[in-house]
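User: Hey, my collaborator sent me this sequence without any context and asked if I could get a structure. I don't really work with proteins. Can you help?
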Amino acid sequence: MAQLEQNQVDSIYDLLLDHGLSYESLQLDLLDHICCMVEQKMDNGLEFDESLSLSTQEFGLSQLSEIQEATFHLLTLKLNKMKKVVGIIAILTAACVMLGITFKIGHYLGAGVLLFTGFILAAFFVFPSMMFFDLKNNSTNLQKAATVSGYVAGILLSLATLTKFMHWPGFSYLYYGGLAVLLLLFMPLYTFRSYKTQENKIFALAKSMLIIAGVMVIWFSYRMVDFMIIEMAAK
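Assistant: No problem. I've predicted the 3D structure and written it out in structure-token form, which is a compact way to encode the shape of the chain:
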């Protein structure tokens, strides 16, 4: 069977680009398909140029833009459906957490199940899914690093909160690990990105300061809970 040389493959790839094909995944699929067509014709004794010409005529390169638009449309529909499913599950997750906390405060049955379900869904489905969608919209490595570090911090802190409510071991590792990722990775990346891209630098810094303030409030809340537990045990 005929085997195309690298320069021949490159020429086919350049041909696809010249016809306006910009979607990378579609580029690779069509490149492989056309290369196979060319190799089959070369097996029948035709030269590369003639095989390529016949293959492109059969394939119809003039329709590449239409194929690409149709592909984008289908992918967008699929992505929107996925986002809708994730959104519904995220709402249910938040509802589980809020109900779980309410039940926990009121000492009602089912608090543990609700909290476990909510935080596990958040840590292992909702946050990873949202990170996937956000990464598709990120165009730079800085944005991707900020996105990943932010969601990793959220996952760790979610699991830390679950262990706190359920009185499981490992809270300190998850909590301080999440704080470390949040403060040492996410916040510098987020602040730098916001400061670099936004015209209003003061507003960008203000958002970062508010996030840090929120983290401090959460930390203080955890400490207050610990103090309350110690006082109740002492009585």
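In plain terms: The mean pLDDT is 80. You can pass these tokens on to your collaborator as they are.
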